[in-house]
Amino acid sequence: TTGTTVLAFDMGASSGRALVGQLLDNSAGDQTLQVTEIHRFPNHAIQVGDHLHWDILRLLHEMKKGIRLAFQKGYAPSTFGIDTWGVDFGLLDANGELLGNPYHYRDSHTEGLIDEVSDLVGQEVLFQQSGLQFMPFNTLYQLYAMKKAASPKLDIAQTLLLTPDLLAYLLTGVKVCEFTMATTTQLFNPETQAWNSELMERLGIPSRLFLKPIHPGTMIGPLTPAVSAELGVPAIQAVAVGTHDTESAIAAVPAGDEPFAYLACGTWSLLGTEMAKPLLSRETMELEFSNEGGVGGTYQLLKNIMGLWLLQECKREWDEQGKEIGFPELVRLAEHAAPFRSLIHPDDPRFFSPSGMVEKIQSFCRETNQPIPQSEGEIVRCILESLALRYRQALEQAERLTEIRYGGLHMVGGGIQNELLCQFTANALGRPVWAGPIEASAIGNMLLQLIAQGKCKDLQEARKLVAASFPTEAYEPNADMDWSAAYELFLGFGRV
Ligand code: LFR
C-alpha cells in the first residue's frame, strides 16, 4: 500500500463535496482507487434583486474547510482538482479582483436570446462554429445579456474565468482557462480549436477576456502562501482536471475499448457517446445534440436532458410546505402509483426555470389532455417514467447520428441511487443498464490528477482502474408493463 493521495472538489448545482482518493496496491500487485467523502455542503441559488446568483465566496469557504479537513483527518493529498457545472463564470478587474457575484445559469436574463442571436448570426453558422445545442444558459447568451443591459462590469473586466478556474484562481492566484469548460461557452470553435473572436465582435463581447485554453491534466500551481498559512497546510498543487463535471463523470465510465453510450445522471441528465472528433452535421444540430470537449482528446456527442431537476424542484416545494419527504420515500410512493397515467416531455422549456414545478407538470398534463397527477407518488411516477422514455428517445437519436447500435447504457452519477429510475430506463430501452459509479465526477476528477502525476497512463488505463475499484449494478429490462405503447404516446409530444 503506497500512498498517492489526491483531493477532489465536485461542485453540483445543489451540493458540493470534497473527496479523498487513495491509490492502493493490493497483494496481487493491482491498483485500486479508494474514495472517501470528507466534506459535503449545500449550494444554493440566491435571488438578489432581478438576478439569480451563486454564492461563490461560500463555495470558496467550504473548499478551504475541505482542504483543512483532509489534513486534519490524516490524509496528505499532493494535489487537488475542481470540477463544477458548465457555462458559468466570474469576471476579474485589472487588479485581479472579482467583479460581483457570478450569475446562475438559470437566471432569466438570457430569455429570448437564443432566437435573437440566431437571427443575427444565423443558426447554422452558430452551430458550425460551436458544435453546441442551443441552450439558453450558454456563456455566449449570458455575456450577450450583460452587453444588452450595458453592464459596466463587462467594460472594466480584464479576464473571464469559468467557475472551476475561478475557484482555482482564488486559491492559487493563477489564472487559467481549462479546455472542457471552454467548450461549453458556445464561443469556442471546435474546428479551429480557438476562441471565436469574430463572433464575439459581432455580439459586442470583448475578446480580451478569454485566455488560451489548457488541457485537462495540466498543473495549475500551488496554493498561495497566504492560503496555505491560513489553513496550516502545505502548498499543495492544483491540477486542471476535466473541470466540467460532465466530462469528469464521463471519464469515470467503466467502459472498455468498444463504443459505448452513457448517461451522466445528476441535476441534469447528459446522454451521449464518446467520439474522436466533433460531429458538426446538420442532423446533429436538428436532433439538438452538443459536441463538448472531453478529457484525453475526446469529444462527447451528448444531449442535455432536464433530468432530476424536475424531482429536486418538486421536493423543494413539498419541503417548503413542511412535508419533508425524503427521496427514498418519494421513490417508494412512485413505485406504488399507477403506471403510465400521465407523461410529460422533460425538455419542455417551461421546466427550465426554478419554482412552481408541480403546477408546471400539472399544466403540461392538462394541455395534453391527460389525467392530472395530484399526489406526490403520481407526480414522481410521472417524472421518472417520462425521463426513462426521454432517455430512449435520446439514445435512438445518438444511434442515428453515429450509426452504431449500443448494447446497453452506462449510468453514472448521484441519480443512479434512484433504483426505480435505473430499472425504468432499462425497461424503456429494452436493453440493460449498467449503473456505477455514483461519485463519477469526483472519481473522474481524481483520475486526471493521477494522470497529471504520471500515476496513470491515459484515459483507457484510468477506466480500467474504475472498473477494478467500483462495483456496477446491472439492471435487465423487464416486460411487465407496455413501455412501447407509452413510448408511442411520448413521441406524440413532438419534440426532438
Ligand atoms: C451538469 C452540467 C451540464 C451543463 C449544465 C449547466 O452538471 O454541467 O453539463 O450543461 O450542468 O452548466
Automatic annotation (TrEMBL):
Record keywords, A-Z: ATP-binding, Disulfide bond, Kinase, Nucleotide-binding, Rhamnose metabolism, Transferase
Lineage top rank: taxon: Bacteria
GO MF term (any one): transferase activity
InterPro entries given in the database record: ATPase_NBD, FGGY_C, FGGY_N, Rhamnulokinase
Record bears the keyword Flavoprotein: no
EC number(s) reported in the record: 2.7.1.-
Domain Carbohydrate kinase FGGY N-terminal: 6-249
Domain annotation Carbohydrate kinase FGGY C-terminal: ranges: 261-452
Alphabetized Pfam families for the sequence: FGGY_C, FGGY_N
Record keyword ATP-binding present: yes
Family: Belongs to the FGGY kinase family.
UniProt-listed PANTHER family: L-RHAMNULOKINASE, SUGAR KINASE
The protein, known as: Rhamnulokinase family protein
